[in-house]
C-alpha cells in the first residue's frame, strides 16, 4: 500500500463519526432510489409479462346487445389483430353473515377452453366444462375472502333469479389486477366478485342467446388506436355501444398505472433530494478537512506531489465515503424494495410477482452517488490542489469578525456573551450558515412529505364520503328504473329517507375537444348526495343548465355561459346541446351535474333513477336487506361505512410504512447535517472553547456556545423547511392523474408540528453526541497544538 | 484597508555550487524564507531569473516546478511538517513512492539513526526525532539539493546540534548540495560559504576559512 493510501485510510478512521453520518445520508439516497425503482421495475416487469401471457386487450367496449354475427365485422376493422366478444353482466351474491349481497360481475367463457383475450390464469382447480351444468370459475380475491375453493357451492342471483353454482376453479385475471367494482376505486374483496361461466349457460339468464354485450380487441403493431376506437364506436352505435376506450381508461389498468407512475416519480424525486443533501455534507466536511490539512498539502507538494495527485487523494476520500454509502444503500434498498413489493402484493393481483434487482440499477445508483459527492467537492479540492505550496504552509489568515447587525442596532445588550458568540459565528460564515439551514430545511420538508399523504387521504375521505355523501346505503340498479321504485323503497320497513339519483355516461364535446364523463342528476334539494368542493363547501345543484367539474371545463376550455354537446352512450343517442351555468372544484372524476328534472329534460322522458340513496333505522337492517334483494333490477347494495373502512384499510398500511421509512430517512439527514456542523464547529473552535474553560467557564456555558449554534440552525430552518415541504407535496400532487381525482395540497397543523418536533428531536440527539465530545475536550492538549 | 505591496527580496544574486554547504543568515523578515522557497521551486519571483543546471525555473509552469521538486529537491522545515497520520517509515515512503531511484525508507531512517523507531507516529517522537525523520524524508529520494528552513528553530541547543550533524553528514557522504537558512549566527560556522541577508538584499558573502563541525557549535 502506498503511503498516501495509508494516509487516506487513517484520515477516514479519524473522521469516522462524520464519515458514517455522511455515508448514511448517501445510503438513504441510494436506498430510496433502489427501493422505489426496484419495486417499480419488479411490478412493471411482472405486469408486462402477465399482460402478454394472458393477452390483455388494447381496446375495450361495452354495449347493450348485438348479434354474435357482428364479431366478424369487429374483427375485420382496420388495425384490429384479434377480437373477442363476450357477455359481461352484473349479478349479486348473497352471503351468509353479510346483510347486503356482494356485487358480482359474470363473464362468459367461449365454447371451448379459456378466453382468447384477457385470459384467466388458473390458480386452483380447472376451468368450467361447457358440457357440465352449473360450473364456474371464481376470482381469487373473493374466494380467499370467503374461504371458497374448488368444490365450494355458491348462490348467484343472475337477472333476478338465484342459482346454485359449483366452484371448479380459482382464477386471477389481468382485467382485475386491481379488483374494483366500477366507480368505487376501492378494492373490497369481500364484496366484489367476478364469476366466469360458459356462455351457453350464462346467455339465457340475461336473454343474450346468440348475442354479446362486451368486446375486447388486440391491435396490430403500429395500429392507430384512436382510429380503431372511433371505428368500433361507429359500428356499435346502433347496438347501444357505451363508448370504446383504450387500456389507459380500463379501471384496473388505470389504477395500476397511477400507482406505478407515483412510484416512478417518487423514485426520481427522493434520491435527488437525498443525494443533494449528501453532496452538500461531503462538501462541508471535505472543505473543513482540507483546510485543517493545509500544511500537510503543502508538504506533499513540496516533496513533489503534483496538483492532480493531491486533488485525487482528496477525491478518493469522497469516493470512499460515497462508496460506503452506496453499498449500504443498495443493501438497504434491496431489503426495503422486497418489503415494498410484499406490501403491494395484496393490492395488485399479479401472479408470480418476483422481486428483481438488476445489476444496472446497482451500478447506476453507485455512479450517481459518487458523482454527486465528487461534484459537491470538486471546487474545494480544486482550489486547494492549486494553492501554491509556499502559501499553503502558512496557516489561514485569522478570521475576520465583525459586530453583527443586532449589535450595530444597539440590541447587543440583549444578548449574553454566549449568544453574542453564536450570532457572530453564524454571520461570519454566511455560506455555511445558509447551507446548513437549507440542509435542515430539507429534513423538515421530507418529514412534511412523509405525513402529508395521510392528510390528503383524510381530506379526500372527509370531502367525498362524509360531507358529499351521507347515505347509509346506495342501492344501484342494472338499468334505469321509474321513480315508482323510489316510492317502493320508501315504504320498506325502517327507511328514513330516500333520494333517487341518475347517472348517464356520455361524451361531452365542445368544438374539437371531448371527454367521457358522467352526467349526474339529483333532486334540487338533495341532502344525501351533495356536490362539494374543497374546502368543504356545499354547492347547490343548478336549477337550469348543467354545472361541470372545473377540471372538465378546463379540459374542454369552456366557461359558464358556453354551450357543450352531450352525446349519451345509452338510450337515445342523439347529441344534445346544453348551456353550462357553473363550474365546481369537485375532487373525484369528471362530472356534469344537473337536477333529476334537468337530466330528464336533456335526454327526454320521465324522471328516472339508476340508484337510490337510503338512510334507515339500523334495527331493521337485516329485514331491509332481505326486502331489497327482491327488487328485480337490483345491481348492488353498497354501505358507505364499509366503503370508508375499506378505503382507510387500503391506504393505512402502505401509508404508515412509507411514512416510517421517509421519516427515518429524514432523521438521518437531520442528524447528518447537524452532527457534521457541530463536529466542524468543534474542531474549528476547540481552542476558543478550551480557553474559555481555562478562564473558568463551566462545561454548560461552553456547551451553550456550541449547541446554541445548532439550535439556531434548526430555528432558522423551520419556516423555509415547511415552505419547501409544501412545495414538494405540490410537486407530488402534480403527478396524480387529475382526471381521476384532484386535491389541493392539504397539510394539517399536526403534520407541520410533527416535522418540526421530529427534526428538533434528531437535532437534540446530534447535540448530545457532540456534547459528549465536548466533555472529553483535552484542555492542555488543545491549547498546546500549533494552529 | 487596501492591500500593501511588500517586496521580500530585491536585487538578490545567488549561486549555489555543487556539493557545497551554504548557510543563509538573516534576521526574521530579512527575506531568507522567500529566497529558499524560490530556490526550492515552491514559489516564483515576480521578477528575475532562477536557473537549475539547464532548467529555467522562472518560466516553469506548475507541472515543471512539481517535476523539479520531485526529482531534485529535498526540504527540511522548521516545524518538521510530518504527516501526523503516518508513521516515521510511512512519512519517508511518501517520498520513496514517487521518486525514481530512492533509498529504501529503512536505509534513510538508518542514516539519521532512527531505524529502531520507524514504526512510531510523529506524536510519539520528540522534536529532534521528528526533525531527523523529516531529514530522512528529504534525503530518501537522493536529491541533488537539500534545502533546510530553520531546521533547529524549534529545538534546544543539544538536539539542534544532533540534527545539524545529520545534515552535515548527508552533505559530506552523499555530496548533496545543501542550503541551511537560519537566524542563528553561530550555525554559520559549519558552512562552506555564509551569505548574510537583510531587508531583502544580500549584505555579504563570505567563504569560510575555518569550517567547524556541528558538534563544536555553541549557542
What's the SSE blueprint?
The complex is a heterodimer of chains A (787) and B (219).
Chain A: H1 3-14, H2 16-53, E1 59-67, H3 70-75, E2 80-86, E3 88-93, E4 102-109, E5 121-125, E6 135-139, H4 140-145, E7 153-158, E8 161-172, E9 192-198, H5 199-205, E10 211-219, H6 225-236, E11 245-246, H7 251-292, H8 294-302, H9 307-344, H10 359-385, H11 389-393, H12 405-408, H13 417-428, H14 430-468, E12 473-482, H15 484-490, E13 495-510, E14 513-522, E15 531-533, E16 537-539, E17 546-549, H16 550-556, E18 563-568, E19 576-584, E20 591-595, H17 596-603, E21 608-616, H18 621-629, E22 634-639, H19 640-694, H20 699-733, H21 749-775, H22 779-784
Chain B: E1 21-26, H1 32-39, E2 51-52, E3 55-56, H2 62-72, E4 73-76, H3 88-96, H4 105-111, H5 127-139, E5 145-149, H6 157-173, E6 177-182, E7 193-198, E8 201-207
Parallel strand pairs in B: 1-6, 1-7, 4-5, 5-6
Antiparallel strand pairs in B: 2-3, 7-8
Helix pairs in contact in B: 3-4, 3-5, 4-5, 5-6
Fold and architecture overview:
The complex is a heterodimer of chains A (787) and B (219). Chain A has 787 residues and is α+β, with helices and mostly antiparallel strands. Helix content of chain A is 52%, strand content 20%. The longest helix of chain A is centred in the C-terminal third of the chain and has 55 residues, at 640-694. In chain B, helix 3 (88-96) packs parallel to helix 5 and helix 5 (127-139) packs parallel to helix 6 (157-173). Chain B has 219 residues and is of the alpha/beta class. The radius of gyration of chain B is 17 Å and the shape is globular. Chain B has a domain at 21-82 and 143-216: 3-Layer(aba) Sandwich (Rossmann fold), CATH 3.40.50.300. In chain B, the strands form two sheets. Chain B has a six-stranded mixed beta sheet with strand order 4-5-6-1-7-8, with helices on both faces. Chain B has a two-stranded antiparallel sheet with strand order 2-3. The mean pLDDT of chain B is 87. Classes of the chains: A alpha+beta (787), B alpha/beta (219). Chains A and B meet through helix 1, helix 8 and helix 11 of A and helix 2, strand 4 and helix 3 of B.
